Amino acid sequence: MLILAWGDKYTGEIFELGAGAYGLSMGEAIVAIVGDATATYWNPARMRTVGRDVWLMYSSDYGMKYNGVAFVNSNATHSIGGAIYWLNIPDMVFTDTMNQIIGRADLNDYMIYLGYAVSIEGYDVGVTLKSIYRDYYVDRAYGIGMDLGVAGCYKHIRWGVVLRNVSGTYMFWDSGVRDFVPPTIDVGIGYIGRNVRFGMSGTINLEHRVSEIQMLNLDTHVGVEYVYRNLLAGRIGRTRKGITVGVGIIKPPFRVDYAFCGIDIGQIHRVSFNWTLK
């Protein structure tokens, strides 16, 4: 018999890794101010302000490899977008009931995001459908979920709200086991100035127990960016993982971002590339 040590807790972690170096360096506080193709992840409603953007990411998250590619295409009435993420956990050890090592293998998660956004009476509304395929050597799982977002602005102020994993996301394993990812609500506010951007958000985690909903906790995020001569950006933020820092090089139509976060169990290094099309 083989032992898999994951469960509902790890099942949801894959949806909390974020997207892009910009988002991480801003403390993941960009629900209200995201302006590139990662909007399909952070807030699908914000796709309305992106235009046409292509995005690539490489990330090393405490030994795990986390990569992604995304795009958004907007016109005067609506926006569509998509993204693919791949998480690789190398050289995992598998044991039997006697705790004897019987094998090693890489574990992989593959996620696909498809988003749509439209403007309704002055507000932007978006939805993202997401599917996940999980290959864990001895077992495989499939899941599907949905995020809903809304966003608006007043002069330089931006706001956004996202309901993630609407009604919960279920993972169905070949073995018959079923894992559950509870819904969360992200609420964000931000400021976009000429050279400065500021973002702040809070995440409320919800979990279904029989017929009741319990509030588990509130995670807060904050981030600030300063852009020097529209060329070089410096960023600092805070997440529940710790303090994040990053830099960006801006040369339209391209942007290259780097982010770093050090935590007890390892370090996160993330690099991403944006190409904004006309």
Please tell me about this protein's structure.
With 278 residues, the chain is mainly beta. The chain has one domain: Outer membrane protein transport protein (OMPP1/FadL/TodX) (Porin, Beta Barrel). The protein is built from three helices and 16 strands. Strands 1-2-3-4-5-6-7-10-11-12-13-14-15-16 form a 14-stranded antiparallel barrel. The radius of gyration is 19 Å and the shape is globular. 38% of the residues are buried. Residues 1-10 and 208-216 have low confidence and may be disordered.
What keywords describe this structure?
single chain; 278 residues; mainly beta; 3 helices; globular
Bin the helical content.
under 10%
Placed side by side, the strands forming the largest sheet appear as 1-2-3-4-5-6-7-10-11-12-13-14-15-16
Per CATH, which architecture? Beta Barrel
Rg: 19 Å
Indicate the structural class.
Answer: mainly beta
Enter the CATH topology name. Porin
Low-confidence stretches: 1-10, 208-216
CATH class: Mainly Beta
**Strand tally, please?**
16
Tally of helical segments: 3
What portion of the residues fall into strands of 2 or more residues?
Answer: over 45%
Distance between the termini: 56 Å
